[in-house]
Every structure is written in structure tokens, then in C-alpha cells.
Amino acid sequence: MNYKETIEANKEWIDAVWEKIDKKMSEITPTALDKIPYTTGKNGKFDNCVEGECPYDIAWWCNGFWPGYMWLLYVGTKRAIYKEAAVNAEKLLDGAFREYDKLHHDVGFMWHISAGVNYRLTGDKDARLRALYAGDFLASRYNPNGGYIRSWNNDSDTDGYQKLIVDSMMNITMLYWMAEEKQDIRYKQMAVNHADTIIRTHIRPDGTAHHIVEVDPKTGEPVKALGGQGYELGSTWTRGQAWAIYGFALSYIHTGDEKYLNVAKRVANAFIACAAVNNWIVPLDFRQPDEPKYYDSTAAACAACGMIEIAKHVSEYDQKNYIGAAIKLLKSLDKKAVDYSTDKDNLLDYGSEAYYPGRGEDGINTAIIYGDYYYTEAIYKLKGFGPLFW
Ligand code: GLY
Fold this sequence. Notes:
single chain; two-stranded antiparallel sheet; binds glycine; 16 helices
């Protein structure tokens, strides 16, 4: 079945899932209007990264996902409450601009799908300014000798080398938007050079990806790979793999360069092979031991988003492989990880921050806001809604 036939065959399920998400969130959202949630406490209620009831603070890299999630629901339902929540959160997020020293390349995650989407949907001038500030901050991290956007700020343990992370492939989409918005090709050149560097430094011959690679800032040459948030050095952290799948698919969409589509397919193929043997239940790392059982629903949801986009751009013959895999991942989440009731605020359980988590078991098999975001974005795509947020 090609893309269109697969959507048709699954229409009843897609419609039902969208309705269940909307039903739940139309009840939960009015209780969370003054929040930017990250996870859900033991009481089943969202925490709040604005006021310190969250393990992290207002500069946390995930604080764009809640407003982005609200915009997805607003586009698909036109319920005013979702827009109100998105706009409130965007204003609260202004506090992060005052935390300049804590900001890094994740300003893309933070502002591209919050203020950036607000501006693209409504033309709001303040939202445009927020997105431009964030976009220029991101561009200021570009290293012309290395050909990459610097990821983090603290590289004090690396002898002057800098850590470059595969997650960055999602942040650079903001630079494609900047190039269009400011009619200035330099932003696109930075994004393209960065994507080319990541292919060279992070994508392994078998289609899996390193999470972190130290690079020489004078040349952009890789110095050594680090284990990062996965199980160990050389293993396959599933969320990193998902960032690469969706990120390279997006670089293809924004540039039309087939090289990026081919990389997206290669990393997707590796993900699909491993997910299939795990019955489409995605672990934290595809090379982790059988015990303890650490899952990552966020990786499954994000990878599905990337596969849906890949499926739209490959030959009719190839479409079934990517759209079929995306539906398998989403149906597995629907069955095993999603709670559509209002007993707790989050949609997805079984997200994990990292294999060796800084927050111990609290960061494992838990609710994480971007799981809800990407699951909803995947269903939004299958419903045929637009625009593309990234
Ligand atoms: N970007 C950090 C993470 O995926 O956990």
C-alpha cells in the first residue's frame, strides 16, 4: 500500500486517536494555563518549569514543547483554550531570554515551535521577534572553520575540543526559517554545513548514530565519540536515532537535497530493523541488555514523525516501508504507553531521559512532555493537518 492507501486503511483509528487526545486535553488544558509542564508528578498532575516545581528551570531545553503541543491541537480543533495556553506559555518563556548563560543550541526546540509557530499561524509581531532573537542566537553559535553550530556551553572536560550532538539536527530547522524570513541565505548555508558535518562525524556506516562526538573547533574534524545518553560508547540511543531520522528528513524538505533524504532513509532503516525485532516497543537503547527494561516512548513518537515525512518523499514503491513502520510504532504506543483518561495529565508513559540518568529512576520509564508532543504531531500529520511545524 502506498502512503495514501495506508492512511485510508487506518482512517478510523487515526480519527479516533485524534478525538481521544482532544477530549483529554480539552479537560486538562484549563488546569494548566499558568504552567510549562515537563513531566507528571506522582499525583498525576503536570509539574511546572516556570516556578521551580520541575526538576529543571525556565531555561530548560524542553520548554517549547508544551506551547508547540497546544498549537498542534489548536490547528486541528480551533479550540480557543489551546491557543490561550500556547500564548501564555510563550510569554512565560520570555524568562528564559534573561537566563542568557544557560541558553545553547536548543533555542531551536524552545522557540521554533512556540513563538515561531505562533508567528507563522497568526502573524503576531512579538512572536516574530522572539523567534528572530532565538534564531540569531542560534546562528551566533556557528563555527565557520568547523562548519557546525556549537551544541553546549560547557566543554571544560574536553581539552579545548567541543561536543557536537546529533540532537542538533532538529534545532537547525530554525535556520532554514531564518533564511526565508530574513531573505538571507547565510542562515541556510550554516544549516547545510552543519548537517554535512553531522553526516561526517555522527552517522555510522550501518545507519546508526553517535549521540556525542568531540570535534576540533579549528577544523571540524572528529576527535572521539562519547557514549552520551545511550547505554555505552558505540551503542544506539534510540532518541538520538530519532533526532537523526526526523532531522535529516527535515533538512531534505527545506533544501531539496537528496543526500539528506538518503541519510534519513538509512538511519530510519536501521531504526526499523531494530524496532521490528522488539515488537515495535522501543527501548531506551537498541543495544542495551534485556534487563533492566528501560523504554523510550518519546523516541518511538519522534521517529514516527520522521518516517511519515520520509514516506511523503520516496517512490510509491518505497512508501509502504516508512508509513507502515510509522503506523506500527504509533499503534504500539497507543496500545502500551498512552493513557487517554484524565486520571493523569500526561498522554504517554515510558519515556526515558538517559540510560545513566542524572535523576536516577525518576528519569526512567516516565512521562516527558515531548513524548506527548511528538505523538500528537504524528497523528496531526496523519490527519493531513498543516503546516509543518519544523
Ligand atoms: N536533547 C536532549 C535529549 O534528547 O535528551
